[in-house]
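ARCHIVE CARD
Drawer: 12
Card no.: 0347
Subject: one protein chain, sequence and derived structure
Cross-reference: see card 0346
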Amino acid sequence: MKQKRKKSNKAESGEKKEPGTLPNPTNELELSQRVRLCASVGEEVVQLDELEKLLKNKRTRPIAYDGFEPSGRMHIAQGILKAINVNKLTKSGVDFVFWVADWFALLNNKMDGDLNKIQTVGKYLIEVWKAAGMDMTHVYFKWCSDEINEHANEYWLRVMDISKHFNITRTKRCCTILGRTESDDMPTAHLMYACMQCADIFFLKADICQLGMDQRKVNMLAREYATKQKLRSPIVISHHMLMGLKEGQEKMSKSDPDSAIFMEDEAHDVNKKIKQAFCPPKEIANNPCLDYVKHIVFGKLEQFVVKRKPEHGGDLIYTSYEQLEKDYAEGNLHPGDLKPSLAEAINSFLEPVRSHFKNDKYAKQLLDQVKKYRVTK
């Protein structure tokens, strides 16, 4: 489908110096603190010793990247959790690049393949992060369509070289990164997508791939490619995938509104969703409410208060997730007490975002447009 070319999105993303140009701030924190802070973002780090060498030896600020497809409303895993992780990385002396993957969304048929809609969603997502507490000082937004058009020769030569080094079977294994199942009748575009995502890492000169565990396969493909071509391998820091709220959901789904809390959800929506969330008493494994407490609440707060009536023992004050988990497993903390306090905490994190989208004219217009679009998987 032919798409009308729009003006560059760069001005709206905010111009600043290129990432990785400022000196590596080796004197601000001890090396061990920087490594620990970076590594805390990941459920898995490949490899920790490489991360330490990078933070110690690179002359300029290392570059971490994450790519996102603009594909609908943003849930708190993308919003709050991402802001928490980005702030940790930038505090440790890393520049963070968001690759606004509008062309990738087109390949994946998001927003019914309408590039204008996709780019509107991309602008909306940027506004969410601005309001969600993300420190933007060392954060950069690069639009795929703009950057590839400006550096087409460099980009497409890299994509072609990657495609020459891996057979179809190997590349197909990476196609689950699109949120699709691996199958023989997948569109050729999905194979192209995997090669392009691998190329992004080298095109952006990323030292660190900081994506979710669901993107691990293509990041490991990039390390394999780097070895073949005798290039420096990117470090892979894969963050945790926040569970969906319903029983058995490994991650949130935008196509199932009750499985996720969205960044502009009203307080009553959050209260309702948390109240209905799967949260079996005394069970720790596969419990989404505990997952939210661990990764969202304690990612933002040093202390979490579970409010209880005096006749039920009074308030419980937790300074670590481990304390709370122990009480929950032993039955000292009931879901009926945990859920209202969890909802209250999440609402407090979302209030600045709600306020931004109600009071900022530009942000409100973007949200109104995005709500009209059909969300695609």
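Annotation on reverse: The domain at 257-372 is CATH 1.10.240.10 (Tyrosyl-Transfer RNA Synthetase). Residues 335-359 form the longest helix (25 residues).
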